[in-house]
Design goal:
about 450 residues; Rossmann fold; Elongation Factor Tu (Ef-tu), domain 3; six-stranded mixed sheet; six-stranded antiparallel β-barrel; disordered N terminus
Length: about 450
């Protein structure tokens, strides 16, 4: 324990270090699994075996020897992140010769939902960890259900603690069959199913065929490397999610993230809801970087725009009359011919993770992008319940229970800008809150009637 106390003084790597390599987009992977199935140990071991830790830290671990608990790496990092109360998931960079990764450890369903709804840290791959001695547990089922709702289709299954069943191939096959059936219930399948021992590093980065001669498949790192990095959606319609607006004397500066499409200087854009129009005069920078010479920005980039309010022959579009802009956080900017949906009614597939049911006509806050709008659920469609073998419950139903998935219609107090999830993922998923507490989330299917 004394060595671990000294170890806590060593600074941990953060996901900010990834951007020292600007030529590759990091692959964002969320680690999920039932409590005590070994998520923290696996993440700590992955950091160590990929040499993603500072060399001084690796030497300290080596000196401690086999008694070192790799889960303590994550405990140290959570203590550092606890100073920022807005962060509820641990995000750590893993760097290899092939690719950079951001590994996201979400302790529970609420933290997982919050992470997925906040755009910059959204994962596209999941590692679902299962203790081979316990098999599929309640949180395992809940996470599989949630992966389906949020549209995460690239899943790696890690069957951990194989040493506790004497590396038995038969036990592994039994769990493999069970988890494959579970995923199929939600329309999912595994990219790889890997037997491992996280504490010893077996099949994490390096295989150990002496222990499991019967397994000839990939290690966890090889499975991660085999997944293609998704390209930013620059070919799609423009979607700029507004984070902040600064109103200056002669112009407005809008700060946000481009979730889809490409934006060029001189283009006219429209802000939704509201329909305010403006032209992009320049891309701004507070660091003296290349922004002064940038003529365009695309999906995946955070930007600061100077908007021009002009009239007459010097306007980029002289046929459009510009008035004073009243822009605000939460709006979504688009080009004129490819606007998002805007309205007070929408139909969504939602996952409810609170023990207290969500009832019809009960006030709830819908958070999409940087928008936050009060509303209520006005109807529920058939509920598919995994515990009841996906059977349809009796209707009419006036509430949603813990860990249920439903299709529901919402009526909002104010219009909201959105896209169906199958059109643009990032502007088609949302969180649900009651008061200040996150209770659920989901994806937009289509506009309400």
């Amino acid at each position: 324990m004394e060595e671990n106390t000294k170890f806590k003084k060593i600074r941990m790597p953060t996901c900010n270090s990834l951007f020292a390599t600007p030529y590759s987009m990091p692959l964002r992977i969320v680690m999920v699994g039932h409590v005590d199935h070994g998520k923290s140990t696996l993440l700590g071991r992955l950091l160590y075996d990929t040499h993603s830790l500072p060399e001084e830290t690796r030497k300290s671990i080596y000196a401690i020897g086999e008694g070192f608990e790799f889960s303590s790496l994550l405990d140290v990092f959570r203590e550092e992140q606890a100073q920022n109360i807005t962060i509820e998931t641990t995000q750590i960079s893993v760097r290899t010769a092939l690719r950079d990764y951001v590994m996201i450890d979400a302790p529970g369903h609420r933290e997982f939902l919050k992470n997925m709804i906040t755009g910059a840290s959204s994962a596209v791959v999941a590692i679902l960890l299962i203790d081979v001695t316990e098999g599929i547990k309640e949180q395992t089922r809940g996470h599989a259900r949630l992966l389906s709702v949020l549209g995460i289709r690239k899943i790696i299954i890690a069957i951990n603690k194989m040493d506790r069943v004497d590396y038995s191939q038969e036990v592994f096959k039994t769990i493999m069959i069970q988890v494959t059936a579970l995923l199929l219930e939600f329309g999912l399948f595994a990219q790889e199913i890997i037997p491992m021992v996280a504490t010893q590093g077996i099949n994490v980065v390096i295989s150990n065929q002496k222990k499991m001669l019967w397994y000839q498949g990939m290690t966890l790192l090889k499975a991660m490397e085999a997944i293609e990095t998704p390209l930013p959606a620059k070919e799609g319609p423009l979607r700029l999610v507004v984070q902040d607006v600064y109103c200056l004397k002669e112009c407005s500066v809008v700060v946000g993230r481009i979730e889809s499409g490409v934006l060029h200087i001189g283009e006219e854009i429209i802000f939704w809801p509201g329909g305010q129009r403006a032209c992009v005069r320049s891309f701004e920078s507070w660091t003296g970087s290349k922004a002064d010479f940038t003529l365009s920005a695309e999906a995946g980039e955070a930007v600061a725009l100077t908007l021009e309010i002009s009239k007459g022959k010097h306007s980029v579009n002289p046929f459009v009359e510009y008035t004073d802009l009243v822009l605000m956080r939460g709006q979504i900017a688009s080009h004129a011919l490819q606007s998002p949906s805007v309205g007070k009614k929408l139909v969504a597939r939602i996952f409810w993770c609170d023990l207290e049911p969500l009832r019809l006509q009960h006030s709830v806050t819908l958070k999409l992008g940087t928008q936050s709008v009060q509303g209520k659920m006005i109807s529920i469609s058939p509920v598919f319940d995994n515990a009841a073998q996906m059977s349809i419950k009796n209707f009419p139903q006036n509430f949603i229970s813990h860990q249920e998935v439903v299709d529901a219609e919402f009526l909002l107090e104010e219009p909201i800008a959105y896209d169906p999830y199958d059109v643009i993922e990032s502007t088609g998923r949302f969180a649900l809150a009651v008061g200040k507490r996150l209770r659920g989330g989901g994806i937009v299917l289509h506009a309400g009637e």
